[in-house]
Design goal:
By secondary structure, this protein is mainly alpha-helical. α1 runs antiparallel to α3. A hairpin with a 2-residue loop joins β1 and β2. The chain contains four helices and two strands. It has one domain. It starts with a helix and ends with a helix. A two-stranded antiparallel sheet has the order 1-2.
Length: about 80
């Protein structure tokens, strides 16, 4: 279960880093579009959808619930 949580964190951090990457502004030189939106907006929507999916996956895996169970056993 630890590997899944580490992988989930890695994917979330990777998505956040890709949204914040300043090089994305240089890609939009010839006015490409994604789903009819300018590239920057289409890319942000896609990453936003991926992050929503990863959050849902974390919810289904009871992400963080293990820590609460361990604290109850200790206390």
């Amino acid at each position: 279960m630890k590997k899944r949580i580490v992988l989930l964190w890695f994917c979330i951090i990777l998505c956040f880093c890709s949204i914040e990457f300043p090089g994305i502004f240089f890609i939009n030189r010839i006015e490409p579009t994604i789903f009819g939106f300018p590239f920057i907006y289409g890319f942000t929507l896609i990453i936003w959808g991926v992050l929503c999916f990863l959050t849902y996956l974390g919810y289904k895996m009871n992400w963080g619930l293990q820590n609460l169970d361990e604290e109850k056993k200790d206390g």
